[in-house]
Amino acid sequence: MRSKRVESKGVSVRAISGTHVVFLAFDLSEKARKGCLGFAIKRRDDTEDEEFWLEGLKTFETVDPAPGPGVKVSTRAHPVQGFQWADYSAKAGHAYRYEVTPMYGKPKELAPGAMVAVNIRTEPLDAATHGIYFNRGAVASQEYARRFQNRKPSDVADGSAHRWLSRGLEEALIAFVKRAKGKSYALRAAVYEFQWLPVLAAFKEAVDAGVDVKVIYDAVPKETGPVKKNKKAIKDAGLTKRCIPRTDGSLMHNKFIVLLKNGKPVSVWTGSTNITENGIFGHLNVGHSVASPKLASRFLDYWEQLAQDPATAELKDWAAENDPLPDEGDDAEDGVRVLFSPHRGLQALRWYARLAGATDVPIFITLAFGMNDVFKTVYRELDDILRVALLEKPGNGQGLAQGRIDVQAIRNLPNVLVALGHHINANRFDRWLEEIDRIKSTVNVRWVHTKFLLIDPLGSDPVILTGSANFSDASTDTNEENMLVIRGDTRVADIYFTEFLRIYTHHAFRESLTFSRKPVEDWKPQYLKASAAEWQKPYFTKGNEHYLRRLYYVGR
Protein backbone atom coordinates (compact mmCIF):
# COMPACT_ATOMS: atom_id res chain seq x y z
CA MET A 1 0.00 0.00 0.00
CA ARG A 2 1.19 3.50 -0.70
CA SER A 3 -0.09 6.78 0.66
CA LYS A 4 -0.34 10.07 -1.14
CA ARG A 5 2.33 12.60 -0.26
CA VAL A 6 1.12 14.70 2.68
CA GLU A 7 2.43 18.27 2.95
CA SER A 8 2.15 20.93 5.64
CA LYS A 9 4.22 24.06 6.28
CA GLY A 10 7.08 22.93 4.09
CA VAL A 11 7.21 19.37 5.43
CA SER A 12 6.33 16.46 3.11
CA VAL A 13 5.84 12.80 4.06
CA ARG A 14 5.02 9.73 1.98
CA ALA A 15 4.52 6.17 3.23
CA ILE A 16 4.87 2.83 1.41
CA SER A 17 4.01 -0.38 3.24
CA GLY A 18 4.80 -4.01 2.58
CA THR A 19 3.78 -6.83 4.87
CA HIS A 20 6.36 -6.33 7.65
CA VAL A 21 7.93 -3.01 6.67
CA VAL A 22 6.65 0.55 6.47
CA PHE A 23 8.93 2.91 4.54
CA LEU A 24 8.70 6.66 5.12
CA ALA A 25 10.09 9.33 2.79
CA PHE A 26 10.46 12.98 3.81
CA ASP A 27 11.20 16.31 2.19
CA LEU A 28 11.61 19.89 3.36
CA SER A 29 11.11 23.19 1.62
CA GLU A 30 14.06 25.57 1.55
CA LYS A 31 12.60 27.57 4.42
CA ALA A 32 11.83 24.48 6.54
CA ARG A 33 15.37 23.16 6.07
CA LYS A 34 16.99 25.99 8.02
CA GLY A 35 18.17 24.72 11.39
CA CYS A 36 16.53 21.30 11.05
CA LEU A 37 18.60 18.62 12.82
CA GLY A 38 16.48 15.67 11.72
CA PHE A 39 13.09 14.04 12.13
CA ALA A 40 11.41 12.58 15.20
CA ILE A 41 8.94 9.80 14.40
CA LYS A 42 6.06 8.56 16.53
CA ARG A 43 4.13 5.43 15.61
CA ARG A 44 0.60 4.61 16.59
CA ASP A 45 -0.72 1.08 16.01
CA ASP A 46 -4.51 1.40 15.78
CA THR A 47 -4.88 -2.37 15.57
CA GLU A 48 -3.20 -3.02 18.94
CA ASP A 49 -3.83 0.43 20.46
CA GLU A 50 -0.22 1.33 21.27
CA GLU A 51 1.85 4.43 20.65
CA PHE A 52 5.56 5.21 21.04
CA TRP A 53 8.50 7.11 19.58
CA LEU A 54 10.49 5.03 17.13
CA GLU A 55 14.12 4.35 17.99
CA GLY A 56 17.48 4.48 16.26
CA LEU A 57 21.12 3.81 17.12
CA LYS A 58 22.91 7.08 16.33
CA THR A 59 23.22 9.77 19.00
CA PHE A 60 24.40 13.34 19.40
CA GLU A 61 27.84 13.07 21.00
CA THR A 62 27.16 15.95 23.39
CA VAL A 63 23.93 14.34 24.60
CA ASP A 64 24.82 10.63 24.84
CA PRO A 65 28.34 9.73 23.70
CA ALA A 66 28.21 6.04 24.71
CA PRO A 67 24.74 4.48 24.98
CA GLY A 68 26.25 0.98 25.09
CA PRO A 69 26.47 -1.91 22.61
CA GLY A 70 23.19 -2.39 20.76
CA VAL A 71 21.27 0.14 22.87
CA LYS A 72 18.56 2.00 20.96
CA VAL A 73 17.65 5.65 21.51
CA SER A 74 14.47 7.62 20.90
CA THR A 75 14.23 9.65 17.70
CA ARG A 76 12.59 12.35 19.85
CA ALA A 77 15.98 13.09 21.44
CA HIS A 78 18.19 11.80 18.61
CA PRO A 79 16.28 12.47 15.38
CA VAL A 80 16.73 10.74 12.04
CA GLN A 81 19.24 12.61 9.89
CA GLY A 82 18.09 11.36 6.54
CA PHE A 83 15.15 11.81 4.22
CA GLN A 84 13.92 8.25 4.53
CA TRP A 85 13.28 5.87 7.40
CA ALA A 86 11.85 2.37 7.65
CA ASP A 87 9.94 0.68 10.43
CA TYR A 88 10.97 -2.98 10.43
CA SER A 89 8.81 -3.95 13.38
CA ALA A 90 5.47 -3.48 11.60
CA LYS A 91 3.01 -6.38 11.52
CA ALA A 92 1.05 -7.60 8.51
CA GLY A 93 -2.51 -6.32 8.13
CA HIS A 94 -2.21 -3.56 10.77
CA ALA A 95 -3.35 0.06 10.59
CA TYR A 96 -0.61 2.54 11.52
CA ARG A 97 -0.34 6.28 11.97
CA TYR A 98 3.12 7.88 11.74
CA GLU A 99 3.70 11.39 13.04
CA VAL A 100 6.83 12.95 11.57
CA THR A 101 8.19 16.07 13.25
CA PRO A 102 11.25 18.04 12.11
CA MET A 103 13.40 19.01 15.10
CA TYR A 104 15.18 22.37 15.35
CA GLY A 105 17.65 24.12 17.62
CA LYS A 106 20.62 22.54 19.35
CA PRO A 107 21.23 18.88 20.28
CA LYS A 108 20.51 19.47 23.99
CA GLU A 109 17.65 21.89 23.33
CA LEU A 110 15.60 20.45 20.47
CA ALA A 111 12.33 22.12 19.56
CA PRO A 112 9.62 20.54 17.36
CA GLY A 113 8.53 22.06 14.09
CA ALA A 114 5.32 21.38 12.14
CA MET A 115 4.20 17.75 12.57
CA VAL A 116 2.87 15.84 9.55
CA ALA A 117 0.88 12.64 10.05
CA VAL A 118 0.36 9.86 7.53
CA ASN A 119 -1.94 6.86 7.86
CA ILE A 120 -1.21 3.51 6.24
CA ARG A 121 -2.16 -0.15 6.50
CA THR A 122 0.39 -2.90 6.02
CA GLU A 123 -0.40 -5.55 3.44
CA PRO A 124 -1.90 -8.87 4.51
CA LEU A 125 0.29 -11.90 3.96
CA ASP A 126 -2.24 -13.43 1.58
CA ALA A 127 -4.31 -11.62 -1.01
CA ALA A 128 -6.57 -12.71 -3.83
CA THR A 129 -3.70 -13.61 -6.14
CA HIS A 130 -0.22 -13.16 -4.65
CA GLY A 131 1.16 -14.40 -1.35
CA ILE A 132 4.69 -13.10 -0.73
CA TYR A 133 6.85 -14.30 2.14
CA PHE A 134 10.34 -12.97 2.85
CA ASN A 135 12.41 -14.44 5.63
CA ARG A 136 14.52 -12.06 7.70
CA GLY A 137 17.78 -12.96 5.96
CA ALA A 138 19.46 -11.36 8.94
CA VAL A 139 21.19 -13.83 11.23
CA ALA A 140 23.97 -11.22 11.09
CA SER A 141 22.03 -8.58 12.98
CA GLN A 142 22.06 -6.71 16.25
CA GLU A 143 18.60 -8.03 17.09
CA TYR A 144 19.63 -11.66 16.62
CA ALA A 145 22.70 -11.05 18.78
CA ARG A 146 20.52 -9.50 21.48
CA ARG A 147 17.81 -12.15 21.41
CA PHE A 148 19.85 -15.32 20.95
CA GLN A 149 23.42 -14.37 21.96
CA ASN A 150 24.62 -15.45 18.50
CA ARG A 151 23.88 -19.11 19.13
CA LYS A 152 23.19 -21.22 16.06
CA PRO A 153 19.40 -21.49 15.68
CA SER A 154 19.63 -25.28 15.93
CA ASP A 155 21.08 -24.79 19.43
CA VAL A 156 18.04 -22.82 20.64
CA ALA A 157 15.94 -25.66 22.00
CA ASP A 158 12.49 -24.05 21.87
CA GLY A 159 12.70 -23.27 18.14
CA SER A 160 12.33 -19.53 18.70
CA ALA A 161 15.46 -18.65 16.71
CA HIS A 162 14.22 -20.58 13.68
CA ARG A 163 10.79 -18.91 13.96
CA TRP A 164 12.32 -15.45 14.24
CA LEU A 165 14.54 -16.01 11.21
CA SER A 166 11.77 -17.63 9.19
CA ARG A 167 9.47 -14.63 9.67
CA GLY A 168 6.62 -16.72 8.31
CA LEU A 169 8.41 -18.22 5.28
CA GLU A 170 8.61 -21.78 6.60
CA GLU A 171 5.07 -21.56 7.95
CA ALA A 172 3.71 -20.35 4.60
CA LEU A 173 5.54 -23.07 2.68
CA ILE A 174 4.17 -25.80 4.94
CA ALA A 175 0.70 -24.24 4.82
CA PHE A 176 0.79 -24.31 1.01
CA VAL A 177 1.56 -28.05 1.07
CA LYS A 178 -1.18 -28.60 3.65
CA ARG A 179 -3.76 -27.04 1.36
CA ALA A 180 -3.81 -30.46 -0.31
CA LYS A 181 -6.34 -32.39 1.77
CA GLY A 182 -7.46 -35.82 0.65
CA LYS A 183 -7.79 -37.80 -2.53
CA SER A 184 -9.18 -34.98 -4.64
CA TYR A 185 -5.86 -33.11 -4.40
CA ALA A 186 -2.43 -33.54 -5.96
CA LEU A 187 0.97 -31.89 -5.53
CA ARG A 188 3.65 -31.67 -8.22
CA ALA A 189 6.98 -30.23 -7.09
CA ALA A 190 10.37 -29.60 -8.68
CA VAL A 191 12.97 -28.82 -6.05
CA TYR A 192 16.74 -28.34 -6.26
CA GLU A 193 17.46 -29.02 -2.57
CA PHE A 194 14.85 -31.09 -0.73
CA GLN A 195 16.27 -31.56 2.76
CA TRP A 196 14.52 -29.64 5.56
CA LEU A 197 12.61 -32.37 7.36
CA PRO A 198 9.66 -30.32 8.71
CA VAL A 199 8.73 -29.47 5.09
CA LEU A 200 9.27 -33.05 3.92
CA ALA A 201 7.10 -34.18 6.83
CA ALA A 202 4.28 -31.99 5.49
CA PHE A 203 4.55 -33.77 2.14
CA LYS A 204 4.50 -37.15 3.94
CA GLU A 205 1.43 -36.07 5.89
CA ALA A 206 -0.24 -35.24 2.58
CA VAL A 207 0.67 -38.68 1.22
CA ASP A 208 -0.81 -40.33 4.29
CA ALA A 209 -4.03 -38.33 3.77
CA GLY A 210 -4.41 -39.71 0.24
CA VAL A 211 -2.95 -36.78 -1.72
CA ASP A 212 -1.27 -37.69 -5.02
CA VAL A 213 2.27 -36.40 -4.38
CA LYS A 214 5.18 -36.43 -6.83
CA VAL A 215 8.41 -34.52 -6.28
CA ILE A 216 11.23 -34.12 -8.81
CA TYR A 217 14.55 -33.42 -7.11
CA ASP A 218 18.04 -32.66 -8.39
CA ALA A 219 20.02 -35.90 -8.54
CA VAL A 220 22.51 -34.88 -11.21
CA PRO A 221 25.69 -36.83 -10.35
CA LYS A 222 28.05 -34.04 -9.29
CA GLU A 223 30.42 -33.93 -6.35
CA THR A 224 29.21 -30.45 -5.44
CA GLY A 225 25.52 -31.19 -6.04
CA PRO A 226 22.79 -31.89 -3.46
CA VAL A 227 22.00 -35.45 -4.57
CA LYS A 228 23.40 -37.29 -1.52
CA LYS A 229 21.75 -35.01 1.02
CA ASN A 230 18.50 -35.04 -0.98
CA LYS A 231 18.35 -38.84 -1.07
CA LYS A 232 19.07 -39.17 2.63
CA ALA A 233 16.40 -36.63 3.63
CA ILE A 234 13.86 -38.22 1.27
CA LYS A 235 14.55 -41.67 2.73
CA ASP A 236 14.37 -40.36 6.32
CA ALA A 237 11.00 -38.77 5.57
CA GLY A 238 9.60 -41.93 3.97
CA LEU A 239 9.08 -40.27 0.59
CA THR A 240 11.31 -42.35 -1.66
CA LYS A 241 8.43 -43.83 -3.67
CA ARG A 242 6.97 -40.36 -4.25
CA CYS A 243 10.17 -38.71 -5.47
CA ILE A 244 11.64 -38.66 -8.97
CA PRO A 245 15.40 -38.14 -9.38
CA ARG A 246 16.39 -35.69 -12.11
CA THR A 247 19.67 -37.11 -13.37
CA ASP A 248 20.12 -36.20 -17.03
CA GLY A 249 20.22 -32.42 -16.92
CA SER A 250 22.90 -29.97 -15.86
CA LEU A 251 21.28 -28.32 -12.81
CA MET A 252 17.62 -28.72 -11.83
CA HIS A 253 17.51 -25.43 -9.96
CA ASN A 254 13.74 -24.90 -9.71
CA LYS A 255 11.90 -24.48 -6.39
CA PHE A 256 8.20 -24.75 -7.27
CA ILE A 257 5.11 -26.65 -6.18
CA VAL A 258 1.88 -26.92 -8.16
CA LEU A 259 -1.37 -27.53 -6.27
CA LEU A 260 -4.10 -29.42 -8.16
CA LYS A 261 -7.71 -30.12 -7.23
CA ASN A 262 -9.77 -32.66 -9.12
CA GLY A 263 -6.97 -32.96 -11.64
CA LYS A 264 -6.82 -29.22 -12.42
CA PRO A 265 -3.99 -26.86 -11.39
CA VAL A 266 -5.22 -24.06 -9.12
CA SER A 267 -2.12 -22.43 -7.62
CA VAL A 268 1.67 -22.46 -7.67
CA TRP A 269 4.41 -21.77 -5.12
CA THR A 270 7.73 -20.53 -6.47
CA GLY A 271 10.56 -18.15 -5.59
CA SER A 272 14.20 -18.48 -4.54
CA THR A 273 13.91 -20.65 -1.43
CA ASN A 274 15.70 -23.98 -1.35
CA ILE A 275 14.16 -26.44 1.11
CA THR A 276 17.13 -26.50 3.46
CA GLU A 277 17.88 -24.98 6.85
CA ASN A 278 20.09 -22.30 5.31
CA GLY A 279 17.59 -21.61 2.53
CA ILE A 280 14.62 -21.05 4.82
CA PHE A 281 16.38 -19.41 7.78
CA GLY A 282 19.90 -18.32 6.81
CA HIS A 283 20.32 -16.11 3.76
CA LEU A 284 17.68 -13.82 2.27
CA ASN A 285 14.95 -15.67 0.37
CA VAL A 286 11.39 -15.24 -0.79
CA GLY A 287 8.52 -17.64 -1.33
CA HIS A 288 5.88 -16.41 -3.78
CA SER A 289 2.53 -18.14 -4.31
CA VAL A 290 0.21 -17.21 -7.17
CA ALA A 291 -3.43 -18.30 -7.18
CA SER A 292 -3.79 -18.52 -10.95
CA PRO A 293 -5.00 -21.71 -12.67
CA LYS A 294 -3.59 -20.44 -15.98
CA LEU A 295 -0.12 -19.84 -14.52
CA ALA A 296 -0.20 -23.08 -12.52
CA SER A 297 -1.03 -24.97 -15.73
CA ARG A 298 2.09 -23.55 -17.36
CA PHE A 299 4.20 -24.81 -14.45
CA LEU A 300 2.51 -28.21 -14.63
CA ASP A 301 3.31 -28.55 -18.35
CA TYR A 302 6.94 -27.77 -17.57
CA TRP A 303 6.94 -30.21 -14.63
CA GLU A 304 5.66 -33.01 -16.87
CA GLN A 305 8.61 -32.49 -19.19
CA LEU A 306 11.08 -32.55 -16.29
CA ALA A 307 9.50 -35.76 -14.99
CA GLN A 308 10.60 -37.55 -18.17
CA ASP A 309 14.23 -36.82 -17.22
CA PRO A 310 15.09 -35.38 -20.64
CA ALA A 311 18.56 -34.42 -21.78
CA THR A 312 19.20 -30.68 -21.75
CA ALA A 313 18.97 -30.51 -25.54
CA GLU A 314 15.56 -32.19 -25.46
CA LEU A 315 14.30 -29.74 -22.84
CA LYS A 316 15.50 -26.84 -24.98
CA ASP A 317 13.55 -28.29 -27.91
CA TRP A 318 10.42 -28.36 -25.74
CA ALA A 319 11.03 -24.78 -24.55
CA ALA A 320 11.50 -23.51 -28.10
CA GLU A 321 8.07 -24.84 -29.04
CA ASN A 322 6.10 -24.37 -25.81
CA ASP A 323 7.71 -21.45 -23.96
CA PRO A 324 7.94 -18.64 -26.51
CA LEU A 325 10.36 -15.92 -25.49
CA PRO A 326 9.53 -12.25 -25.93
CA ASP A 327 11.42 -10.45 -28.65
CA GLU A 328 14.18 -8.33 -27.20
CA GLY A 329 12.28 -5.17 -28.17
CA ASP A 330 9.02 -6.22 -26.50
CA ASP A 331 7.65 -4.64 -23.34
CA ALA A 332 6.55 -6.70 -20.35
CA GLU A 333 2.91 -7.76 -20.57
CA ASP A 334 0.30 -6.56 -18.11
CA GLY A 335 -0.43 -9.11 -15.39
CA VAL A 336 1.81 -12.10 -14.66
CA ARG A 337 3.64 -14.55 -16.90
CA VAL A 338 6.45 -17.05 -16.49
CA LEU A 339 9.57 -17.82 -18.49
CA PHE A 340 11.32 -21.17 -18.11
CA SER A 341 14.90 -22.29 -18.70
CA PRO A 342 16.89 -23.58 -20.44
CA HIS A 343 16.53 -21.98 -23.86
CA ARG A 344 19.08 -21.81 -26.61
CA GLY A 345 20.99 -18.57 -26.33
CA LEU A 346 20.65 -15.57 -24.02
CA GLN A 347 17.58 -13.91 -25.49
CA ALA A 348 15.69 -13.97 -22.18
CA LEU A 349 18.61 -12.51 -20.21
CA ARG A 350 19.12 -9.74 -22.74
CA TRP A 351 15.38 -8.98 -22.59
CA TYR A 352 15.52 -8.61 -18.80
CA ALA A 353 18.44 -6.20 -19.15
CA ARG A 354 16.68 -4.26 -21.89
CA LEU A 355 13.62 -3.80 -19.67
CA ALA A 356 15.91 -2.48 -16.93
CA GLY A 357 17.80 -0.10 -19.18
CA ALA A 358 15.16 1.03 -21.66
CA THR A 359 13.37 3.60 -19.50
CA ASP A 360 14.31 6.65 -17.46
CA VAL A 361 13.10 5.16 -14.16
CA PRO A 362 14.97 3.74 -11.15
CA ILE A 363 15.85 0.06 -10.93
CA PHE A 364 16.69 -2.20 -7.99
CA ILE A 365 18.23 -5.68 -8.23
CA THR A 366 19.46 -8.47 -5.94
CA LEU A 367 22.21 -10.77 -7.20
CA ALA A 368 23.58 -13.87 -5.50
CA PHE A 369 26.64 -14.64 -7.64
CA GLY A 370 27.91 -11.41 -9.11
CA MET A 371 26.61 -9.11 -11.86
CA ASN A 372 26.31 -10.37 -15.42
CA ASP A 373 27.88 -8.27 -18.19
CA VAL A 374 24.49 -7.30 -19.65
CA PHE A 375 23.53 -5.71 -16.34
CA LYS A 376 26.94 -4.12 -15.87
CA THR A 377 26.21 -2.26 -19.10
CA VAL A 378 22.91 -1.02 -17.65
CA TYR A 379 24.49 0.05 -14.36
CA ARG A 380 27.48 1.82 -15.93
CA GLU A 381 25.36 4.73 -17.19
CA LEU A 382 26.22 8.10 -15.69
CA ASP A 383 22.96 10.05 -15.73
CA ASP A 384 20.16 11.16 -13.42
CA ILE A 385 18.61 7.70 -13.06
CA LEU A 386 18.85 6.01 -9.67
CA ARG A 387 20.15 2.44 -9.91
CA VAL A 388 20.57 0.26 -6.82
CA ALA A 389 22.06 -3.22 -6.49
CA LEU A 390 22.50 -5.62 -3.58
CA LEU A 391 25.02 -8.41 -4.14
CA GLU A 392 26.06 -11.46 -2.16
CA LYS A 393 29.53 -10.95 -3.64
CA PRO A 394 31.01 -9.09 -6.63
CA GLY A 395 31.72 -12.20 -8.68
CA ASN A 396 31.93 -15.95 -8.69
CA GLY A 397 34.77 -18.41 -9.28
CA GLN A 398 37.27 -17.23 -11.86
CA GLY A 399 35.23 -14.06 -12.39
CA LEU A 400 35.63 -12.83 -8.80
CA ALA A 401 38.73 -10.68 -9.35
CA GLN A 402 37.31 -8.93 -12.42
CA GLY A 403 33.97 -8.64 -10.67
CA ARG A 404 35.59 -6.64 -7.86
CA ILE A 405 37.05 -4.23 -10.40
CA ASP A 406 33.82 -3.84 -12.36
CA VAL A 407 31.55 -3.46 -9.33
CA GLN A 408 33.85 -0.85 -7.79
CA ALA A 409 33.81 1.14 -11.05
CA ILE A 410 30.00 0.98 -11.08
CA ARG A 411 29.59 2.00 -7.46
CA ASN A 412 31.85 5.02 -8.04
CA LEU A 413 29.11 6.57 -10.19
CA PRO A 414 27.13 9.19 -8.23
CA ASN A 415 23.74 7.87 -9.40
CA VAL A 416 24.46 4.23 -8.49
CA LEU A 417 24.24 2.50 -5.12
CA VAL A 418 25.81 -0.91 -4.55
CA ALA A 419 26.01 -2.92 -1.33
CA LEU A 420 27.67 -6.25 -0.66
CA GLY A 421 26.67 -8.66 2.08
CA HIS A 422 28.53 -8.09 5.35
CA HIS A 423 28.32 -8.51 9.11
CA ILE A 424 29.82 -6.73 12.12
CA ASN A 425 32.66 -9.12 12.74
CA ALA A 426 34.42 -7.49 15.70
CA ASN A 427 33.15 -5.68 18.75
CA ARG A 428 35.83 -2.98 18.42
CA PHE A 429 32.86 -0.82 17.35
CA ASP A 430 31.95 0.08 20.89
CA ARG A 431 28.25 0.61 20.33
CA TRP A 432 27.65 -2.53 18.25
CA LEU A 433 27.37 -6.15 19.25
CA GLU A 434 29.48 -8.67 17.38
CA GLU A 435 27.46 -10.71 14.87
CA ILE A 436 27.74 -14.20 13.39
CA ASP A 437 27.76 -14.59 9.62
CA ARG A 438 26.03 -17.94 9.10
CA ILE A 439 23.67 -20.39 10.79
CA LYS A 440 25.76 -23.48 9.98
CA SER A 441 29.48 -24.09 9.84
CA THR A 442 29.46 -24.65 6.07
CA VAL A 443 27.23 -22.67 3.69
CA ASN A 444 27.54 -21.74 0.02
CA VAL A 445 25.60 -18.47 0.35
CA ARG A 446 25.76 -16.37 3.53
CA TRP A 447 23.74 -13.24 2.85
CA VAL A 448 21.65 -12.79 -0.30
CA HIS A 449 20.08 -15.63 -2.30
CA THR A 450 17.14 -13.82 -3.90
CA LYS A 451 17.00 -13.11 -7.61
CA PHE A 452 14.64 -10.24 -8.32
CA LEU A 453 14.61 -7.04 -10.35
CA LEU A 454 12.34 -4.06 -9.69
CA ILE A 455 11.75 -1.52 -12.45
CA ASP A 456 10.16 1.75 -11.25
CA PRO A 457 8.64 0.00 -8.20
CA LEU A 458 7.05 3.20 -6.86
CA GLY A 459 5.57 4.19 -10.20
CA SER A 460 2.04 3.48 -11.40
CA ASP A 461 3.20 0.73 -13.77
CA PRO A 462 5.95 -1.23 -11.99
CA VAL A 463 7.63 -4.35 -13.37
CA ILE A 464 8.83 -7.11 -11.04
CA LEU A 465 10.96 -10.09 -12.09
CA THR A 466 11.35 -12.80 -9.45
CA GLY A 467 12.16 -16.49 -9.41
CA SER A 468 14.94 -19.04 -9.21
CA ALA A 469 17.16 -17.81 -12.06
CA ASN A 470 20.32 -15.88 -11.12
CA PHE A 471 20.29 -13.39 -14.05
CA SER A 472 23.27 -15.28 -15.48
CA ASP A 473 24.24 -17.01 -18.71
CA ALA A 474 23.95 -20.45 -17.11
CA SER A 475 20.53 -19.74 -15.60
CA THR A 476 19.27 -18.83 -19.08
CA ASP A 477 20.73 -21.41 -21.45
CA THR A 478 21.87 -24.32 -19.25
CA ASN A 479 20.11 -24.67 -15.89
CA GLU A 480 16.45 -25.49 -15.29
CA GLU A 481 14.81 -22.37 -13.84
CA ASN A 482 11.68 -20.27 -13.75
CA MET A 483 11.15 -16.51 -13.64
CA LEU A 484 7.90 -14.64 -13.00
CA VAL A 485 7.38 -11.33 -14.82
CA ILE A 486 4.71 -9.21 -13.08
CA ARG A 487 3.63 -5.88 -14.47
CA GLY A 488 1.23 -3.26 -13.10
CA ASP A 489 0.71 -4.78 -9.63
CA THR A 490 1.57 -2.03 -7.13
CA ARG A 491 0.87 -4.29 -4.12
CA VAL A 492 3.50 -6.79 -5.24
CA ALA A 493 5.90 -3.92 -6.03
CA ASP A 494 5.43 -2.33 -2.61
CA ILE A 495 6.21 -5.58 -0.79
CA TYR A 496 9.34 -6.28 -2.83
CA PHE A 497 10.49 -2.65 -2.64
CA THR A 498 10.20 -2.37 1.14
CA GLU A 499 11.96 -5.70 1.64
CA PHE A 500 14.71 -4.67 -0.76
CA LEU A 501 15.37 -1.46 1.17
CA ARG A 502 15.29 -3.34 4.47
CA ILE A 503 18.03 -5.75 3.54
CA TYR A 504 19.97 -3.28 1.38
CA THR A 505 20.22 -0.82 4.28
CA HIS A 506 21.15 -3.66 6.61
CA HIS A 507 24.16 -4.72 4.56
CA ALA A 508 25.18 -1.27 3.29
CA PHE A 509 25.69 -0.12 6.87
CA ARG A 510 27.71 -3.21 7.78
CA GLU A 511 29.84 -2.88 4.70
CA SER A 512 30.50 0.77 5.53
CA LEU A 513 32.08 -0.26 8.83
CA THR A 514 34.71 -2.22 6.90
CA PHE A 515 35.78 0.81 4.86
CA SER A 516 37.67 2.43 7.72
CA ARG A 517 41.42 2.08 7.31
CA LYS A 518 42.19 3.57 10.72
CA PRO A 519 43.89 1.49 13.42
CA VAL A 520 41.49 -0.06 15.91
CA GLU A 521 42.65 2.26 18.69
CA ASP A 522 41.84 5.33 16.53
CA TRP A 523 38.32 4.23 15.57
CA LYS A 524 35.48 6.45 16.77
CA PRO A 525 31.72 5.91 16.42
CA GLN A 526 29.71 8.04 14.01
CA TYR A 527 27.48 10.59 15.68
CA LEU A 528 24.61 12.72 14.51
CA LYS A 529 25.66 16.07 13.08
CA ALA A 530 25.13 19.20 15.16
CA SER A 531 24.95 21.27 11.95
CA ALA A 532 21.79 21.25 9.82
CA ALA A 533 23.64 22.25 6.67
CA GLU A 534 26.24 19.49 7.08
CA TRP A 535 23.88 16.52 7.24
CA GLN A 536 21.45 17.91 4.65
CA LYS A 537 24.01 18.83 1.99
CA PRO A 538 24.18 15.57 -0.02
CA TYR A 539 20.37 15.38 -0.21
CA PHE A 540 20.23 18.71 -2.02
CA THR A 541 23.30 18.32 -4.26
CA LYS A 542 22.16 17.53 -7.81
CA GLY A 543 23.47 14.28 -9.21
CA ASN A 544 24.22 12.86 -5.77
CA GLU A 545 22.53 9.52 -5.05
CA HIS A 546 21.03 11.02 -1.87
CA TYR A 547 19.45 13.76 -3.99
CA LEU A 548 18.03 11.21 -6.44
CA ARG A 549 16.68 9.01 -3.64
CA ARG A 550 15.00 11.94 -1.90
CA LEU A 551 13.11 12.95 -5.03
CA TYR A 552 12.10 9.43 -6.09
CA TYR A 553 11.07 8.16 -2.69
CA VAL A 554 8.95 11.16 -1.78
CA GLY A 555 7.29 11.07 -5.21
CA ARG A 556 8.50 14.25 -6.88
Describe the protein.
The protein is α+β, with helices and mostly antiparallel strands and 556 residues long. The chain has 3 domains: 6-121, Immunoglobulins (Immunoglobulin-like); 164-315, Endonuclease Chain A (Endonuclease, Chain A, 2-Layer Sandwich), CATH 3.30.870.10; 317-521, Endonuclease Chain A (Endonuclease, Chain A). It has 16 helices and 25 strands. A 7-stranded mixed sheet has the order 12-18-17-16-13-14-15, with helices on both faces. Strands 19-25-24-23-20-21-22 form a 7-stranded mixed sheet, with helices on both faces. The longest helix has 24 residues, at 490-513. The two termini are 18 Å apart.
Q: How much of the sequence is in beta strands?
A: 25-35%
Instruction: Give the strand tally.
Output: 25
Which percent bin holds the helix content? 25-40%
Number of helices: 16
Shape: globular
Low-confidence residue ranges: none
Number of domains: 3
Overall CATH class of the largest domain = Alpha Beta
User: What distance lies between the first and last C-alpha atoms, to the nearest angstrom?
Assistant: 18 Å
- Arithmetic mean pLDDT: 94
Quaternary status of these chains?
single chain
Instruction: Record the strand order, biggest sheet.
Output: 12-18-17-16-13-14-15
Radius of gyration: 24 Å
The CATH topology of the largest domain is given as Endonuclease, Chain A
Largest sheet: 7 strands, mixed
Q: What would you call the structural class?
A: alpha+beta
CATH homologous superfamily identity of the largest domain: Endonuclease Chain A
User: What would you say the CATH architecture of the largest domain is?
Assistant: 2-Layer Sandwich
